[in-house]
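Hi V.,

Quick status before I head out on leave. The structure for the redesign project is tokenized and pasted below; the design run finished overnight.
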């Protein structure tokens, strides 16, 4: 089961992936979390911080090699949930090449849909609770515009391949999760 989650910052990708990972027993891979770990624990830290702390994207090749290393590990053999990757058309193309070389394919690409007002409200609240350095008003605005410019085209990329499944992410996390499960189970 290989599933990709695409959605603007604050749309709940992480929340849904954590629940689904438990339910399906496949690992949850968040490129945002991987990058924050690299920022805080590796020599690449300052380079990574230069991109992510201001809400800009890390370089495509760098992210692709990080993801291909992780999905080659044994716990990913029966599948994985990708949260926040691919985030650019170049990443989607690199990922397709990676999958083709291994005769793999994606089962679902979910698009979480929510209004900017709701996203901003959620991220401001999260910064109060978790203190993420990129949840400040200026950085949130930048992340939303980076999403429109760089990530929205990824939705068209997968829509052209008949893979996109939009989900209303304005509902409660429980309702979104129930809808996700129904879509996976009926393979609709
Ligand atoms: P959520 O609200 O679901 O946590 P998010 O977009 O706010 O989503 P993350 O997905 O954790 O947060 O990403 C945090 C930051 O990490 C992004 O703003 C970006 O700088 C960087 N990042 C994450 N994934 C990628 C990627 N695939 N390519 C490039 N940069 C990435």
């Amino acid at each position: 089961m290989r599933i990709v989650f695409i959605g603007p910052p604050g749309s709940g990708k992480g929340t849904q992936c954590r629940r689904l990972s438990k339910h399906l027993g496949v690992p949850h891979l968040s490129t945002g979390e991987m990058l924050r770990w690299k920022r805080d624990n590796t020599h690449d830290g300052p380079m990574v911080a230069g991109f992510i702390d201001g809400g800009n994207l890390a370089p495509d090749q760098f992210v692709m090699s990080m993801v291909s290393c992780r999905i080659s590990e044994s716990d990913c053999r029966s599948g994985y949930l990708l949260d926040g990757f691919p985030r650019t058309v170049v990443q989607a193309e690199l990922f397709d090449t990676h999958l083709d070389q291994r005769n793999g394919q994606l089962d679902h690409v979910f698009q979480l849909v929510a209004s900017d007002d709701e996203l901003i409200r959620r991220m401001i609240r999260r910064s109060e609770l978790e203190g993420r350095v990129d949840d400040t008003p200026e950085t949130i605005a930048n992340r939303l515009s980076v999403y429109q410019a760089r990530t929205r085209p990824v939705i068209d990329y997968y829509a052209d391949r008949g893979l996109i499944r939009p989900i209303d992410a304005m509902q409660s996390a429980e309702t979104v999760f129930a809808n996700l499960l129904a879509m996976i189970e009926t393979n609709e």
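Above is the designed sequence. Strands lie at 2-6, 28-30, 80-83, 108-113, 164-168.

G. will cover questions while I'm gone.

Best,
W.
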